[in-house]
Amino acid sequence: MKFAFLIHNMYGVGGTNRAVLNLATALVGQGHGVEIASVFRRVDRPMFAIDDRIALVPLVDTRPRRPDRADPQHREPSLLVPESEEFHTQYSRLTDERMIGYLRSTGADVVVGTRPGINLVVARHGPDHAVRVAQEHMTQDLIDDALKDHIRLSYDRIDLAFTVTEADAAAFRTGNPVPHTRVLALPNSVPLPTVAPSGRDNRIVVTAGRLDPIKRYDRLIAAFARVAGDHPDWKLRIYGDGPQRPALAAQIRELGMADQVQLMGRREDMATEWVKGSIAAVSSERESFGMTIVEAMRLGLPVVSTDCPVGPREIIQHGVDGLLVPMDDIDAYAAALRSLMRDEGLRARLAQSALANAARFDPETLADDFARQCAAVLAERGPAPAESVRSKRSVQGPQFARSVLTRGGELIREPDLARLLGDPVLRGIAGNDLARRASMGALTRLARIRQARATSARLQKAIRRRIAAPAGGPAVDCLVLPDHGLSWRLDVPGLAAGAHLLLRDRDTGHKVRVPLDARDDLAYQVGVLPADALPEGRWNAYLQPLTGARVRLRPNQIDTRVLAGGYRPVDDLARAHGVLSHLPYRTVDGFLAVRSWVREEHAEVRRIALSGERVSIDVAWCGPGVPEQAVLRRRGHREGAVRMPVVRKRNGHLRIDVAVDELAAHRLGRYEDWDLWLCQAGTDREVRLGLLVDDVIDKKLVYNYPEIYLVDEPGLDLVEEDPAPVLRVRPYYTRDSELSIVVVDRP
């Protein structure tokens, strides 16, 4: 069978996109044809990697300087998508025209809508020869009553309606009775992860999702705060972005939890983040399904979740593979967290059951059920008259942009494409992963250039170089080993012997080469970089073939779970040998880089506590001897230093107390940065404090400490006049992950 999914915006992120992509990938893996029609295209590339065998068809391209963006019809409101649909204002007469045109032209056996407004379009304009399917990823109680009226009026042409839970299927049958439509439950699928499950070695609670009020992360933070004092070595990590971030950051600061609760931002690959945790947490008011629950379970994490409508209770078996707690009961949530934090055996037992039970959400299993239901409808209906199918396909609908080729390399139905691809250069461009998405018009214009007598040899060479250029560079998986060395895996079939990885220091140009060992008949290559083979610095990663230019590497998966646990020396001998840490990360432009620290002596920050009078810092000393004094040095051309004693604690850590009023008394300007150092008596060596053994590359975005306010003006003779009446003192980590304190007297 051939399946066509009609989706709002496949180029973005979100649970619906992931669910559709997982199902589509499983269907194409079972031999079915699959096409995804995205109503909107707002960026150049999809956020999620899409299997090459799946055709992605954008209907309306609203990227800058695209004709659709200025089309007058795009400013006229949609007549197909009702006003009660959440995204009604994004649809227009242009999207109406393109969706109808697509549905009239498709030869798919099954046409699938993926949200209520689009489902109505499929119901009213889906081809008669196809099975018309409505997927409901939104719970029934969140669908507007006016929209439900449209569903009752139009869904009689829908053959199958799938909700993601049995509870929602029952609510659909009760609230939207449609006599001729089968309403079934099809859970969202989650593929088997390609990273190893969590070893639950790190004392981290992980949660992920949009920072939206419905997720109730404020309650999660409050519950965690109630147990954090008894478990100071545990942390809560919240992944995601959204409108609630400022409010959550303020809550964390007010609770004094900046060291234990961290807003991590959004991650493209959450699998490598889940495995850094030992417990997963969900605190939502409602979940239409709970995809993050399944993702965490498939990676071996027990989940603590609110028993909210409607998804969690159909995924988690309380006390077997996770814990369910009543809604709005922060004490119960805190008790559930406490029980798992305290009991390692309970965590392990629930985690093993979670791994086993989550297998029922495997995409292959659910895709097989989905395909079987669709095939049953086709079988009941019998073969469609050939004439009606052909007449549907021949209807002259509006022209909408398609890719030059489907992602699997199959030609699409533009009449002149085969003639244009007779030219070998144009054929090469169409086969290139980057250029195959070029528009028909771009190929036509290039064909005219190629046919022109005046085309220069230089231009033709430039075209050939573009064809030969790799599509974004080879992908690589990188794993931090237990000794902080790095393991690399590249899937570059047929790479000639002698190729190697190349790490180049951005500042000095120094190069470190990593030999590659071919595995599985040259299907992939593995390289291991010993921990002591990489000096301190910032390194760009390349693939250096035996012949030809080096190319930047793009990270596929970066597994840094070893670093997430922080500095953990096994004995006093390890403490005496300094610190060594290598952190691979994805750069802003999407390439792989490594930040490495190699220090014979180092002061690793373990905890920072703030009061109204001081900043208290716990430090693990790495190196010979024990420092007896700390010093704060003013950064910049104005010299200045504040010295403080170092107190040795029972656990072997050191404590430094910075009195903020004393620091303020030494300031000479309105904005000053002070850097923290440790020094041993009788020597002139000073060692910076920092957080180096960590998996966060930009700590300014994650470790957001509150400010200490000094209201009383100390009455100093300042270099700059008119100081503000309120002083602010705040610790922070620099770009190099070293600890500093800023003093500001500006409002």
Automatic annotation (TrEMBL):
SUPFAM superfamilies attached to this UniProt entry: UDP-Glycosyltransferase/glycogen phosphorylase
Pfam short name (any one): Glycos_transf_1
Domain (Glycosyl transferase family) ranges: 201-354
Keyword terms, alphabetized: Glycosyltransferase, Transferase
InterPro entries noted in UniProt: Glyco_trans_1
Coiled-coil ranges (or none): none
Keyword Transmembrane applies: no
GO molecular function: glycosyltransferase activity
Protein's UniProt keywords contain Transmembrane: no
Enzyme nomenclature, EC number: 2.4.-.-
Enzyme kind, highest EC tier: transferase
Signal peptide (from-to): none
Protein name (record): Glycosyltransferase
